[in-house]
Amino acid sequence: TLPVAAVATPAASGPATPAAAAAATATTPGTALGDLQAFLRQTQQGRSAFTQTVTGPRPAPAPDALAAANAPAARVQISHGVFEFQRPNRFRFHYQRPFEQLIVADGQTLWLYDPDLAQVTARAQREVLGQTPAALLASGADLRTLQQAFSLSNAPDADGLRWVQALPKGADAPLQAVRIGFRGGQLAVLEILDRFGQRSHIAFERLDTRSAFRPGHFSFSVPPGAALIRPE
Amino acid sequence: CASPMPLRPANQEPPSKELPTQEPLSTMQAKPGAEVVPKPEPERSHWSGRLALTIETDPVQHFSANFELWGNADSGSLSLSSPLGQRLAHAQWDAQQALLLHNGRSSVYAHMDELSAALTGVALPLPALFAWLRGQQAQIEGWQADLSRHAQGRLQARRWLPTPAVELRLILH
Which of A11, A92, A186, B122 would you call most buried, defined as having the most Cβ atoms within 10 angstroms of its Cβ? Predict the structure, then answer.
């Protein structure tokens, strides 16, 4: 049979003791969940340059040496751009290099514009929010509301960051896990692991939370000559 | 019966260089008088980029994604992802069968024509597609490819038959 690309499922193990369970969900200052709660409450808008590194899943174990030699290595694709958000539910991901793509959430619709293909795809924001972890960052909700869609917990500190782990609650969610990293209480990393084991690591530079956005900055209009697609 | 040969996608090339943004693909015509011959890359076996499929039904159907493609028409794999890097589907094929991983399920098809029709709505002509990607013209009934901008990482192919008409546009990274 075909070696199947790893479609991993999250480990079922949870905190072993009541104390550990309490620690895992503590939101007191000094915890990652505390950072996320403060971020949701106190940072109403922000702009940051980002670097996104997408790593394909490690290839499925190949049955023989020749297959192993031929199997595609875990692919890494790096892109750069600017992320902007404004609570309660607006954000922009403007990918600039190596190619341009623009994602705009205007509060109602999620727009994806590809200038090279001259194509705009528009989806109702509420239908795709579960698959757009960026909505976690731009959400106007508090932790309790987010916990309707994600199991939130304090993950171990790593790489000098405090980490929140968010496990999607929907059984058919295309994502396996989301992690948000904070450095000194500031948003630093968004990491997304999908059901295929493909990892998207988005590292944010210093967040500018002061510069105001001009009115209409998070609205989108279809550029002349671009085809508009509204998938059902 | 004997279990089919395990899949062996061919070796891969180093990551391709960053491409500057070009004029929109929809204005894809060779410059007047310019005799453009693509530079064939017969040995290449890995491509990444973006693809857009338009099926001229009523209403028109569209399919687009970021893609990575390995191998050749006989044995290879294709993965489709969103701009934010989430993989949407993964297909692997060899001479015996084609396997699709999509929405948390795996489905087996006799060959990639069936698989690509199920996934995108269009039976993609894999042998011709690999030739076009390598900058080599390939005749296939009902399809016509424009390789005039292959050097700029742009490829367009149109299916006239069978109807409905289909347009495939690829941007190679």
Answer: A92
